[in-house]
Specification:
7 helices; 2 domains; 36% helix; Rossmann fold
């Protein structure tokens, strides 16, 4: 018998949320949303964040960029993949679908994919990894450490999701920061607007800006022989 719900969806199913909303329960989605589903949300500009991160790698000479993704079909993953593809297209770099790997935002996904990439490094000729989530990145970092792959001398890496530890690593990690410190206030405000019977207008969806934080995990290989 709650008065309202602020929820961060983790899967692809939205029917239960739509059902709750239709029954009159105020809802606000945070971080993710569902395409074609009329539920208010607060999300980050994942497309622009991914575009900027991939462009940064390209500016540093990287053309063979592996992308380790999360759950295909989720709004966050789809926008980040689209940003990655857009940057490649913008720079006339051929898109190789084999360089997109992974199936969830978990640690094991990053670890397993990184192991595969390292095994076939000579074949794929990748010079950089773009990780689409911080848990994925932790798995990648473990795999690289086990295989004695040095960042960024052997392989460059950029990660989505800024975390406090990113600046504390042996090689500080370049990341895309996308969560706003005002997220809680914004989501509560939208929720209260739905609960206010005197509030006539429909809740507006909010898209927060993302920001690329540049540190030391990307090597400039433009002058590489």
């Amino acid at each position: 018998m709650v008065d309202g719900i602020i929820i961060a969806p983790i899967g692809l199913e939205s029917e239960h949320l739509v059902k709750a909303s239709n029954k009159g329960t105020p809802l606000v989605l945070i971080d993710r949303f569902f395409e074609g589903v009329n539920l208010p949300y607060i999300s980050s500009n994942d497309f622009e964040g991914s575009l900027e991160a991939t462009q940064y790698l390209i500016n540093n000479g990287h053309k063979r960029i592996a992308c380790i993704q999360g759950i295909a079909g989720t709004s966050t993953n789809s926008q980040r993949i689209d940003g990655y593809k857009k940057a490649l297209k913008k720079n006339k770099i051929a898109f190789d679908p084999k360089l997109i790997m992974g199936n969830d935002f978990g640690f094991n996904n990053g670890y397993t994919c990184a192991k595969k990439l390292i095994t076939h490094l000579a074949k794929t000729k990748i010079t950089a990894i773009f990780s689409l989530g911080n848990q994925i990145t932790l798995g990648v970092l473990k795999a690289l450490k086990e295989e004695k792959i040095q960042i960024p001398n052997d392989l460059s890496i950029v990660s989505f999701d800024e975390q406090e530890y990113c600046d504390l690593l042996f090689t500080p990690l370049s990341t895309v920061s996308h969560m706003n410190e005002n997220l809680g206030d914004l989501s509560l405000r939208i929720l209260l607007e739905q609960m206010d019977k005197n509030h006539k207008s429909k809740p507006k969806n909010v898209v927060l800006k993302s920001k690329l934080i540049i540190r030391d995990s990307v090597k400039n290989i433009n002058n590489k022989n």
